[in-house]
Amino acid sequence: MLRIYNGVKWMKIVFCSAVCATIALCVYHNWVHAKELDMLGNGVVKVHRSKHLREDILYGDRDGVTAISLSHNANQKPVDGNIKDLDEAKAKIRELEMRIKLLEGGNPRRFPDVKFLNYRTRKRILVTGGAGFVGSHLVDSLMMEGHEVIVVDNFFTGRKRNVEHWIGHENFELIHHDIVNPLFIEVDEIYHLASPASPQHYMFNPVKTIKTNTVGTINMLGLAKRVGARVLIASTSEVYGDPEVHPQPETYWGHVNPIGPRACYDEGKRVSESLSYAYAKQEKVQVRVARIFNTYGPRMHMNDGRVVSNFILQALRNEDITIYGHGDQTRSFQYVSDLVEGLTALMASNYSMPVNIGNPVEYAIKDFAKKIRDLVGGRSRLTFSDAVEDDPQRRKPDITVAQTQLHWQPKVTLQQGLKKTIDFFHKELLRSSHSNRNMFQPELSLTNPILNAKAEQVEVKR
Ligand SMILES: NC(=O)c1ccc[n+]([C@@H]2O[C@H](COP(=O)([O-])OP(=O)(O)OC[C@H]3O[C@@H](n4cnc5c(N)ncnc54)[C@H](O)[C@@H]3O)[C@@H](O)[C@H]2O)c1
């Protein structure tokens, strides 16, 4: 009996020992191969192997390690192979860091210092044609004021470069879209500027010019109706044609040739105005109509084909300055910052009838050419060619309505404006690579000393 009892006792001891040994083995095995994964960011995973106190750095993520970069024993003296791997990995990391820095460097991280508006005062504003000459200056002004700006452009005459300094800003969005096609977005205000503006561009495809100003305008007015937005239409002094009244008040109905080479633009804009007032009357859309007179400034298209760009480019290249006709025909020129102030004042006003926005100081074209030549300082001669068909002989806005209703009038002198514009064209001619970026310097008004001081500070900081 006693012998049987002792046998069972020994069997129990042996069994318990075997179980304990197995458990100990399992624990030891897990301990040896335990891995601790740390995410270091940028897709790098740090792996600790506790047995040999090894520290491996792997590329990839938690789901899949793509490349083992190095294996490094933190406790033991590394063998030659490990040192080589470590150095290679460090070099690779440095190279990747450089690449990231380069990529970040392409996108300016520092934006101009925009005003902060809270959700009650901040508006969402659509600017069609916002990558063009006037549009891009308007965008600068609206962005500086702290609004959210959406630019829609088909880049026919506009360029990304004109608004590149805002790309990436949280208040800015750029959409590549042709406004002849409907657009569905939510906005509070629409500045409808999309349309080629220079004869060279609007005559290039007259049917498309008419479509942009008719179908495109219907799309914008329809959008305004749907979302309850106020819409400002960029009309033109061309609605007056070759005027028989001088200067031209808004009440003048115009003198337009409906089948001439300029008709696609002139009549397109006239229909655009008619559509605006039809939508206002029938659909209660809030419309504002700006009749814009000749405008010039930086970011004008180099192939604009109109007098300002033609004369400046010819003078800068020391070529003859070509005047079409006898040169006694007159034009009035406004600087782009004056126009932008006029447009924003009109949008904010309660006045809904058309308003002339232009500079009433009139110049004979040949005097204007001489002024540019003198400012550039070249040796260009003036030459005269045949007059252009349907070219208006006199153009000068009557700005009484803008003065009384908007308290607006142009401030920038021709001398100040031309200097800035010549400087722009000069830099564009010297430009030889994409890395010559379009540095934005806030200059909402050349006559505002506070803004100018601010602009200089921004320039110094760069
Ligand atoms: N610059 C002036 O002297 C002047 C004078 C009178 C009126 N305007 C009016 O002001 C507005 C802006 O003129 P600008 O001088 O800046 O011209 P611009 O050619 O520089 O700009 C027009 C912009 O509209 C875009 N655009 C053209 N068709 C489009 C379409 N179907 N869909 C989307 N985008 C399109 C172009 O790509 C360009 O960015 C135009 O409506 C023009 O008629 C200008």
From TrEMBL:
Q: Does the keyword Glycoprotein apply?
A: yes
Keyword Calcium attached? no
Q: Which residues form a coiled coil?
A: 79-106
Pathway of this protein? Nucleotide-sugar biosynthesis; UDP-alpha-D-xylose biosynthesis; UDP-alpha-D-xylose from UDP-alpha-D-glucuronate: step 1/1
Q: Which InterPro entries match?
A: NAD(P)-bd_dom, NAD(P)-bd_dom_sf, UXS-like
Per its Swiss-Prot or TrEMBL entry, what cofactor is needed?
A: NAD(+)
- Know the name of this protein? UDP-glucuronic acid decarboxylase 1
